[in-house]
Amino acid sequence: xxxQTTQIAHSEPxxxxxxxxxxxxxxxxxxxxxxxxxxxxxxxxxxxxxxxGNFVLLAFFISAMVLGKQILLELYVLSGADAxxxxxxxxxxxxxxxxxxxxxxxxxxxxxxxSYSHRIVVTPxxxxxxxxxxxxxxxxxxxxxxxxxxxxxxxxxRIIDVGTIRIxxxxxxxxxxxxxxxxHPERLRDFLKHxxxxxxxxxxxxxxxxx
Length: 211
Hints:
By secondary structure, this protein is of the alpha+beta class. The protein is built from 4 helices and 10 strands; from the N terminus they run E-E-E-E-H-H-E-E-E-E-H-E-E-H. It has 2 domains: 130 residues, PH-domain like (Roll), CATH 2.30.29; 64 residues. A hairpin with a 5-residue loop joins strand 6 and strand 7. It is elongated and about 80 Å long.
């Protein structure tokens, strides 16, 4: 079950109770150009919390790989060692160990892909999604042209406060930017909503509204 939220607010800038540093440490500093406030550019990358399910499975596969042969041997001895020839038993146990080792490697690759496959770069006037590890692909949107910022969270995502953020520009259908594994996605949405209000509706910039 997923929860999808779509909000774009232009009338009143949102206030935040705390300016604490978040997990990824990418809290923008304040820049002042004359008397005009400009937030510092910052990056948002998928957090490791988003891979918590993969970490649990990885731990299980490694445990099964280490302990699996011993457990199968004990079961083999308890069964009387008559049902399966010893040579066949060795082949089966080695196959089980190799299977769990392969699945552990797959999960390690999945965790790496989830954590480093994309990042969002936010500047005072643009949002850019950079995808890829070796081959890079980027999508850049002017914040003043954003028409929707949507957040999608599964039940598990709500527990650890991560989610997928989707951003659509006013001139197109669908979403130009879609990034999963974002820590505290509502805070990023609130920051973008305030920048939209500043750039589109001349709201007063508020340095306290940060990601």
